[in-house]
Design goal:
Blueprint lengths: L3 H4 L22 H6 L47 E4 L5 E4 L2 H10 L2 E3 L5 E2 L5 E5 L6 E18 L4 E6 L7 E4 L5 E2 H6 L2 E2 L4 E3 L9 E2 L4 E11 L11 E5 L5 E4 L5 H10 L14 H13 L26 H5 L8 H5 L73 H4 L14 E3 L7
The chain binds a DNA duplex through strand 4, helix 5 and helix 6.
DNA sequence: TCCGCTTCCACATTTGAACCGT
DNA sequence: AACGGTTCAAATGTGGAAGCGG
């Protein structure tokens, strides 16, 4: 485990990362800050994100660089701990399903992206320790490009193939339990399994927008927030797990990844060797179609789960069955009274309909009046909309496909703040990168 | 025009939430 | 209120067609 103070000694111990406080000096050019603002929003409406966050004693003007990302996929064993940028002393995160991620990473993880949005699998499943049980925090996730290259599958491995596409607006997924107390977050693992990835630059749902055939790195951000709404800032911790690096694709390139996904993802059960959608079954269906209707005999295979049958699974691994991510908890678990974050892992997230999917389309965007959540840790059942920040007239100054910058850079660079708070489970655009 | 790469879409199947009746 | 069955939306990878550029 890397301690943040070791990674970022420049932060010191008394410095919190945060937006410029009222009256505080900031090196952020006012003109540039202006570029982040919504022309159609009244300033007071912006006061709804990260409100009540405790004042940072020492806002920083420039972000410290993250350590270099790992080299090519699968070429080097991932370090056992996340890299972190962090002003929350003592807080540490660990990747719950790290073994599964490592398995994918050893092959070269690929994530499907579609216009409608596709979930990540494996999902980031995090356990956190060291939080103040009484304080409240937000959990965020974003995905940043690893390098400035576009990749191509060369039959056996991924290789850089030219320059990356211009970087898209950054969007941040806000965990629907946010904000919740430290005790709440530490009670059980925090799952981001409902995060969706899309390649649609005009995506209206707020999914995280990625380019196909590019390498990305998910990051987890923890923000201390005393209340839901405030103009103050209480510290941030950003983590990334090198083994979660992936290449976005619109169709799987590496058949080994396909096999792993089918074997590990319960929704792909039908494609396993004993599934009715396995290749053998599909071929048989095609033949039956060509020959015309005839008595269907597929039931002879039974449920497909019977051991020793003609389609015995050879992929259903031990890891998968023991991994809570692949094995949904019994339905009773979801029905039983559970703590807000889900006494039984991800099941609790099912208590927050639509929240993980970002903002429902019928909800107004840029909701300025997100309901104050009582300290029950239970967020409102619906999220507000995501927000999209366009580059301002001053220009962002970011090169296309720039190397990943710390999430906190948005704040560290002095603005814009406060960000509009789109509500838990929604996505927040903090992008300042030119789209084209 | 051809070819290769990439994207898109319909499809069958599985899962789980919602609904309804008992 | 609890339970069980049914329905339906959402999720999965597949495979072929379409689009695009060299």
């Amino acid at each position: 485990m890397y301690h943040p103070r070791e990674l970022y000694p420049s932060l010191g111990t008394g410095c919190c990362l945060g937006p410029p406080q009222p009256g505080a000096d900031s090196s952020f050019p006012p003109a540039l800050a202006e570029g982040y603002r919504y022309p159609d929003l009244d300033t007071p409406k912006l006061d709804c994100f990260l409100s009540g966050i405790e004042a940072a004693p020492c806002p920083l003007a420039a972000p410290p660089p993250l350590p270099p990302l790992p080299p090519a996929l699968g070429t080097e064993p991932a370090p056992p701990a996340p890299d972190a940028l962090h002003s929350l002393p003592g807080v540490s995160l660990s990747l719950e399903n790290r073994e599964l991620w490592k398995e994918f990473n050893s092959v070269g993880t690929e994530m499907i992206i579609t216009k409608a949005g596709r979930r990540m699998f494996p999902a980031c499943r995090i356990s956190v320790t060291g939080l103040d049980p009484e304080a409240r925090y937000l959990f965020l996730l974003d995905v940043v490009p690893v390098d400035g290259a576009r990749y191509r599958w060369q039959g056996r491995r991924w290789e850089p193939s030219g320059k990356a596409e211009p970087r898209l607006p950054d969007r941040v997924y806000i965990h629907p339990d946010s904000p919740a107390t430290g005790a709440h977050w530490m009670r059980q693992p925090v799952s981001f399994h409902r995060v969706k990835l899309t390649n649609s630059t005009l995506d209206p749902h707020g999914h995280l927008i990625l380019h196909s055939m590019h390498k990305y790195q998910p990051r987890i951000h923890l923000v201390r927030a005393a209340q839901l709404c405030s103009q103050h800032w209480g510290g941030v911790a950003s983590f990334r797990f090198p083994e979660t690096t992936f290449i976005s694709v619109t169709a799987y390139q590496n058949p080994r990844i396909t096999q792993l996904k089918i074997a590990a993802n319960p929704f792909a059960k039908g494609f396993r060797e004993n599934g009715r959608n396995c290749k053998r079954e599909r071929d048989a269906r095609v033949k039956r179609k060509l020959r015309g209707p005839e008595p269907v005999a597929t039931e002879a295979y039974g449920s497909g789960d019977a051991p020793g049958g003609p389609c015995d699974s050879t992929l259903g691994g031990d890891v998968r069955e023991s991994d809570p991510e692949q094995v949904p908890a019994p339905r009773e678990a979801a029905q039983a009274p559970a703590p807000p974050c889900g006494g039984s892992s991800a099941e609790a997230y099912l208590l927050h309909p639509a929240a993980f999917h970002g903002a429902p389309s019928h909800l107004p965007t840029r909701n300025p009046s997100f309901p104050e959540a009582a300290d029950s840790g239970r967020p409102a059942p619906y999220s507000a909309a995501f927000l999209e920040l366009q580059p301002g007239p001053g220009g962002s100054g970011y090169p296309a496909a720039a190397p990943p910058a710390p999430f906190a850079s948005h704040f560290l660079q002095g603005g814009p703040f406060p960000l509009p708070y789109p509500g838990p489970g929604a996505y927040l655009d903090v992008g300042s990168k030119p789209m084209y």
